[in-house]
Structure formats: structure tokens, C-alpha cells
Amino acid sequence: AAWRERLNADLVGPARKIIDPLDDDGLSALMENLGGHCLETMLDAYGRAAASEQPMFMLAYTIKGWRLPFQGHKDNHAGLMNPTQIAAFRDKLGVPEGKEWAAFAGLKPEMIARCEAALRASPIAQTPDRRFGAPTTPVPDRLSTPDDKEMSTQAAFGKILNEIAREGGPLADAIVTMSPDVSVSTNLGGWVNRRGLFGRDSQEDLFRRRKIASAQIWSESPKGQHIELGIAEHNLFLALGAFGLSAPVFGTRLLPIGTLYDPFIARGLDALNYACYQDARFLLVATPSGLTLGPEGGAHQSINTPLIGMGQPGLCAYEPAFADEVSVLMRHAFAHMQAPQGESVYLRLSTRVLAQPTRPDNAWIDGAIAGAYWMAPPQAGAELALVVCGALAPEARAAFDQLTEDYPGLGLLHVTSPDLLHRTWRASPGRSTIDHLLAPLSADAGLVTLIDGSPAALSWLGSV
């Protein structure tokens, strides 16, 4: 009756000849299914589209919540049926109680046999396992470490990747880099010069042909291993997600690396989130980061990104301070990306040039991978420790040197991953990496944390 009242007010002429002969039930059935819910109509439309050489698209007029008590209601996005309504709906469909999730619940026996036969004969059933396997790309026991006495982590990343390209081999052949308009400023230039820019057709570098001076060689070919995306961070994460699924989807393993300016992770956060939920594997290199990028202004500064790294499932976030840490963590990332229980890796880097430390041994390496290590171990019962992450290492060291006399046994802890420390502490409080590291301190010791980012990334350490 409600349909009829509205339609009679709106329609005149031939359209009335369609609705006038229908009783209320017939009119309701018509208006609630204008083709979009009709399987026969949809199959017929797809059949006609397949026979045509012209591109087509379908508009299926549907009603949200079709056949449910609140169909078409503006509040039904969060609508839930009560038990009485569920029981009535189940009975209407002919589904026995307790069999709601049975494959063919509600169908007559003769229809079940036909459906089972159709499913067995369908193309998708002929290849039940649609996830491929791919051989693991071998990763060297160690990657080269730049020997510069002073260097930023961003520059270290570029040099290490350039050396991988120079040496060649399976690892270099599996890497595909991509960037939204910041390839050069994120230090991918050396890699692109050696491995080339991807293009469907070969095209020489226009600047070189016209003899315009440039350190970059931008020759395009189908063999190129760098994809230039333009200013489109969302597209970067879509591409990382797609390339990062190459092993299970195509049976060919690729190791995608995406670079961007750290604050612009937020521009593509939705695509990053879904890429991780799909278990895509990639290396995200976000650089430069923090306030240490002062000369480029506030638009290129990031504060909250360490919290994104800590909060995003399927993404292991690191923030190295030194070139040797970058080398160790890149090597770890290439292996971790391929591990059955692995995940993608996010390196938050900086353009700030730091003096590189002289290491007495390699004892720090396992700690760097696990999330933290003592640069200067505390004495048992020490009352204070400084905790630093990333580019503020010089400030932390200067403070350590000044405070040593007043606080005997002072410790200096270098954190490479607030993310790993936090997740292992939550999983095993009292037995985690950070519990073990802080154990020598007095129970009421003070911690001073330093990070070029949100203080919340480290302030939780006081709870440990």
C-alpha cells in the first residue's frame, strides 16, 4: 500500500499500466527487485556482454538488506535482527536450525545434487590450491657497510642498495624499487642508474640525448627494475601490496622496496593497512623523518609515524641511527620478508649526518635486530639510564658524558625498534627483550628517553 501511494503520486501515463494490475504483494515484489537481485537477469546480461566486443558496465539496482526486516531502512548499516526475526528468516529460507552454515542449507535434495555437480565441474575447482609457492631468494650473510666516518642513515641506505646492484646476483635481480617523485632525494639514484627505469617500451634518456648535465640515467626498458610513480603515495602502497604478493599469486618472488618522505605515509595509510592485512611482503623506506629535516620546512617533518609503525599489524618497524645498523637491518629485512611467519619491514631513516661509532665487536647485532642494545651497559643497581632511538644519538651521547660523574654506572640504551620491544613486552611481560635489558637497573631507576618523533613511542618504557 505504501508503494502504491507514492507511485500513484509520481507516475502518469503508460507506467501506471504496469502497476495498476498488480495487487499489493505483487507490487511489493516488483519494487523490491528491479533486476539487481534477479540472478537470471544478471546471467543474461553477462552473457550478452561476453558476446559483445564493446566495453560494458552493469548497474544493478539493489536494496540494502534485501529480504531482511529492515531492508531499505536508512538505519540498517548497523542493523541486527533479534532472535525472533532470525528464526522467522531461517524458516522462510527452509534452513534447519543448527544447519545455518551448511553449504547447501535450504535447498531441496534434487537441487543439492545439481549444485554439487556444477561446483565439481567449475574451472575454479580444477585448481583447488590457487596460492603458489616460490623459491626463497638467497640473502648474503652480510651486506656491505659504507666506511664513511660521518654519514646519515638515508645515505647509507642508498650506498648499500647501490652496492647490491653493482654486485648483481639473485638478490639484486629480485628487487624492484618504486617511489612517488622522490627517487633521487631518497637516494635511489645509484640503484636506478645501474638497474634502469621500467617502461613497457624502450626509451633513451631524453636529458642525455640533449646533452643536459645530470647524474641520473633515466633510460626506460621492460627490463628496468625501478618504477617511477609521480606524486602519488597512495599508488605507492597499492603497488607495494601488489608486488609484495607476487610469490603466492604468480609463483615468482619479488622483493619490492618503496621509498617516500616519512610524513606522507599518512597519505597512503589505507592502502598500506590493506597490503599488510593481505600479508604482502615489502620493504618500506621512509626518509627523511622527524624534525631533524629542519631546512626543508614543516611540511616534510614527521612526528607520529613511529606510532604508525608500532600499531600496524604485519609491519615490523625499525629506526636505525648508524650506517652499520642500516646494513644489518636491511639484510634482516630481506630474509624476514620471505620467512613463512615473516612480515613487511619499515625503516624510518634520517638525513642527519652522524659520526659513526667504532665497534669493539659484533655483540650488538642480535640486539639491534631484536629492538635494542646497550651502547654503554649500566652497572648493577644503576639509578639512571638514557634511552635513545635514531637521529638523536649525538644528544644522548653528550648527555651521557656529562652525567656520568653524577650518576655512577649510568647506562646508554640504543633502541632500534620501539615496535618490537613493545610487542614482545606485551606478549611476554617479565620475560621480554626489554625486561632483560632493563633488569640490571634499580627498581626505581629513572629513564630519560630521546626520539625525533612522538614521545609515546618510548615513554611506555617506564612501565617496564
Provide a concise account of the structure shown.
With 464 residues, the protein is an alpha/beta fold. It has helices spanning 2-10, 14-19, 24-31, 39-50, 83-93, 109-121, 123-126, 153-167, 170-174, 189-195, 206-209, 233-243, 246-250, 269-277, 305-311, 323-336, 364-370, 393-403, 418-427, 433-438, 456-459, and strands at residues 150-151, 175-179, 197-198, 220-221, 226-228, 255-260, 283-286, 315-318, 344-348, 354-355, 372-376, 384-389, 411-415, 446-451.
Task: Return the structural class.
Answer: alpha/beta
Distance from first to last alpha carbon: 67 Å
Largest sheet, if any? 6 strands, parallel
Strand order of the largest sheet: 5-2-6-7-9-8
**Which stretches are low in confidence, meaning pLDDT under 50 for 5 or more residues running?**
none
Overall pLDDT confidence: 92
> Which geometry do the CA atoms define?
globular
SS summary, helix count: 21
- The helical percent reads 25-40%
Count of extended strands = 14
Q: For the CA atoms, what is the radius of gyration?
A: 30 Å
| Proportion of beta-strand residues | 5-15%
Notable characteristics:
6-stranded parallel sheet; 464 residues; 4-stranded mixed sheet; 14 strands; 21 helices; alpha/beta; single chain
Descriptive overview:
- The chain has 464 residues and is of the alpha/beta class.
- 38% of the residues lie in helices and 12% in strands.
- It contains 21 helices and 14 strands.
- The chain has helices at residues 2-10, 14-19, 24-31, 39-50, 83-93, 109-121, 123-126, 153-167, 170-174, 189-195, 206-209, 233-243, 246-250, 269-277, 305-311, 323-336, 364-370, 393-403, 418-427, 433-438, 456-459, and strands at 150-151, 175-179, 197-198, 220-221, 226-228, 255-260, 283-286, 315-318, 344-348, 354-355, 372-376, 384-389, 411-415, 446-451.
- Helix 16 (323-336) links the parallel strand 8 and strand 9 (344-348).
- Helix 8 runs parallel beside helix 10 (189-195), helix 8 (153-167) crosses helix 16 (323-336) and helix 15 packs parallel to helix 19 (418-427).
- The longest helix has 15 residues, at 153-167.
- The radius of gyration is 30 Å and the shape is globular.
